[in-house]
Amino acid sequence: MQQTAIPSLIKLMMQPEFYPHPVKEPIQLIQTHISYVLLTGDYVYKIKKPVNFDFLNFSTLSARNHFCQEELRLNRLLAPEIYLEVLPITQQGESFILGGEGEPQEYTLKMRQFSQDALLSKMLKQGKLTPELMEQLGRIVAQVHLQAKTNDYIRSFGAIAKIKDAIEQNYQQSQKYIGSLQTQQQYEETKQFSDNFFSLQEALLNQRQGNNWIRECHGDLHLDNICMWHDKIQLFDRIEFNEPFRFVDVMYDVAFLVMDLEAAGQKELANIFLNTYIEQTGDWEGLMILPLYLSRQAYVRAKINSWLWDNPTLSEENKRQAATKASNYYHLAWEYTCPQPGKLIMMSGLSGSGKTTVAKQLARSLGAIHIRSDAVRKHLSGTSLSQSGDPSIYTPAMTQKTYGRLLELGTKLASQGFIVILDAKYDRHSLRSAVITQAQNHQIPIEIVYCTAPETVLRDRILARTGDISDATVDLLESQKKAFEAFTETEKSLVKIFDRKTSERKPLD
Hints:
Shape: globular
Helix content: 40-55%
Largest sheet: 6 strands, antiparallel
C-alpha cells in the first residue's frame, strides 16, 4: 500500500504521551488507502483519511464523524467486545487532546487490539484452521445473515440492473491488463459467463430479491476480517462507507469466504463452511447463484492486485508479487465460470449406520453439497435445527414432502454442475426410483451409497448422539428394519456398500 505523507496529528498520535493509558512502544502505524490505524498495545485507534473516491467520501469532518459512528454501530452488532467508542480529538493551544472538550478537529474509532496471529488468515498459514472451526464459522455467519435487516430499500439493491452494473465496472476497469495479467480468452469467457447469467437466470435473481435474501450483510467477509478472540470467532471491519457493498445477496458474503479458502488451496475447509452454512439457513437455492459471486469476488481481488502492480511507487519485488496474485485470481475467476459435470449420490441405510459420517467425508473429498433429510424436514416445518421435532413433522405426508424437496434440490443443483449428496434412509423402492428416474431424465450420473452395521453398533451410535439434528431413537430401529425394501436388480448396479467392519466401498453382491 502506498504510504502518504504523515499529518502532524498522526505524528502526535504516535507519541506515548498522547494517550491517557499505558501504551506498548513503539506505537505502530498502519496505512490503508482510506485510514490511519495506530496500534498502542491494548487499543487500536482508526482515523479516516480526508479522501473522496468513487466508492466513498470522507472529505469533510462531518462525513468522517458520521462514518466513524456508522462503523461503530454496524460492527458492534457483530463484535461488541472489540468496537468500543468514537472519540473526538480536540485542540487546546498547540496540543491535540484525545476525547477533550471543545471543537473537534478530528474523530477516531477506538477498538480493542488483538494479536495478528488471531486472524483466521494467519491461523490458516499456521495450520490452525480446523474442520470444527469451519463448522462453527458456518453457524455464526448463518445466524448473522438470518438476523440481518432487510426492507424494501435494502432489497432494491438486488435489482438485476444494479448487480450487473457493479460487475460490469470490474470488467471495464481491468481491460488494460488483458495480455499482461490475464489472457484475452479468460477475459472474454469470464465476462460472457456473467452476461449469460443475467440473461438466462433472470427468474432466479428476481426470486432472490423476492424471497428476502438481499440483506444488510458484512460486505467484506474474508479471512483477514475474522479473528479468534477470547475463544470466540469474531467478524469485524464490516463495510460502513458504501451501501451497495453491504446491501447484497447473502451469497455475496458466503462467496467471499469460500473463494478466499479455495484460493489458499483449502477446498475441504471451504466445503465444510459452505455445507454448514447452507444447512443452517436452508438456502440451498442460493447455491445456484454462488458461481456468479465466486467469480466476482476472485475478479475483484485480481483487479485490486492489478492496480498494485501498476503502482509506480512499489518496489519491483512487490510488483512481482502483485502480478502473480492478480494472474492467479483472474484464472480463478475464470475457473468458476467453467461448466462442471453434476452428479447425484443417494445415501441409504438405517439410523446409526453411518450415512451422515460417510456423506460428510464424501462431500469434503468431492467438493459436494451435502443435504440431510433431517435438516430439510425441520426447515419445511419451521422447526429449529437445535430443537427436537414433535410428532407432526414425522407424519407420512411430511415424510413425502421431505423426500420431494430432496429430489427437487438434488435435480436443480446437479443439473447446474454440483455434486449433490442426498442424505436420507431411502429405504423404499419408490423413493429411490424417483431419484433414479429424475437423474436419467436429466442425464445426471447417479450412485447409491448403502451404509450398514451390526444392530449393536446402530444402537450404540444412536445412544451416543449429542447435539445432532437427527431425532432418531433406538426404538425406531425395529420398524426401520421391517420397512426397508431390498434393492432391485436395477438398483444393485448403482450401489456401493460402506460397512463399519471394513470402512471400504465395494459393489453390492
